[in-house]
């Protein structure tokens, strides 16, 4: 067998299959059996190790400084602590000396241990802590058991040090998410007045007025930003994770010489902060302004520079947006964030490539984790492990079209062979897309097993008239309430009283929520139903047809179930059934569809509002998950077998399913994936 490195991320699925001498689907199923829930690692958070910062700021003397350990429970307290993001290796030009700081022995049995962390790292973070009155520091090198401290490296061993190491890797997302002061230390300093002035303009949003800025200054800003993002901190996968998870709370620290202190403090504190010797910059603000600058720059510079300079500019802009770009600006509302996250992690450095699994899981808020140590020991593919982890956490592959899976790497398959959600036209965003995941997933030979509600579609409603609503009180707009009242009345006119009553109850709850104001925090269920009701109202306004659905349960006669859902039924979005489809085409559905077909039509929905695992919100809270697909039932509408479903498209609708049993369904594997 050809010897590969562990990192097979650049190999196609067909190459991986040949190398391991086995088909892809059985390998995914086997990998999917080696899982654990993130909730099992939460004791790490209940006994989070931190270091106590010295009572006085570090004065850069040569005296040894001892840092004692302290435990806090972030699941039940709001204790403030700094979560430090930094690189273990120094950036070019950064001081590399270490050994001045001594860390208390974890078991408190031996003398303090000389830290290998650079002295300048401790010096800067101690100064930062004193600026904000924070006494505790969480730093991965000393607050997670490292490989050289473990008693062994066997998988799932009971040693306390090994359990501590595994747990820390799997819940690091929550450490940064719930830190009161996540902060990143960049190694490259800002050393000139011109750089500070340009950076100040950028953070304040003034660099977007490009007509007021000379070409020379624009090039200066571009090169300064390029220098910043070539700091080692931007190049590592773990620090990408830390920045991503801390979100709006993360600040970047960039050091500067003492002679620039007065200039820095001349700016509003929200721009650069007031920490001696440091520029304190919001990571979110930096990302947003860099992205906007990069988008605005080409039209301004391109007509005035040479072809070679334009190529240079394009390369720098690509590097900036790839490294520090803002997803909410760069991505379309129908894009999935998963391939972007996986790609960013794969493109950054890690000491052990298998660390990518917990990093992607943390960034994606995956609750089902894989035992990477065991998978690595057995000899499984890292790429297939990544794919299996995505599937286990509900990511939805397109199982109705041929996509040439064998020719693609796992990252390429995530980009082109998984569903892009073209969901609600009202307020659709990346957060909505991120929650479009299946629930209760298991990987089986026949396909992806999950649970949800299956709706058999029936009556079509064509809207023509509108109702008048005198009482406009509610979160919905007046015209939206008018259209939903019309819908409830229309449904009632067909003697479909249960669905009409549910729509009326929903409008009553909407009015009550509005009356409560800030006293009532809407749940995800409330928010989702409001979004779908707005979508329905918009569809009615556009003259689109609606279609009613009743619960379909293979174990219960469907005709006994009343209509309890209404979906937007837009014929323009249906596949064209006039011509027979060529199933050998790489981009066509593998089932036949004809408008007006007498075969039953179905919608599958799945909804899960997760309450989290532990109290105080410092929990393994899952994303609120939701899917709504029109599907083709592959094995017919019988009452014996588990329904096998092929996905046609996303379909929006308002469903009422309280006390309705979840049914088991299987989404068969994509045909050409089975063939690898």
Automatic annotation (TrEMBL):
Question: Heterokaryon incompatibility domain: from which residue to which, for each copy?
Answer: 81-242
Q: What is this protein called?
A: Heterokaryon incompatibility domain-containing protein
Question: Which InterPro entries did the record assign?
Answer: HET, HetReg/Transcr_Mod
Output the Pfam families linked to this UniProt entry.
HET (PF06985)
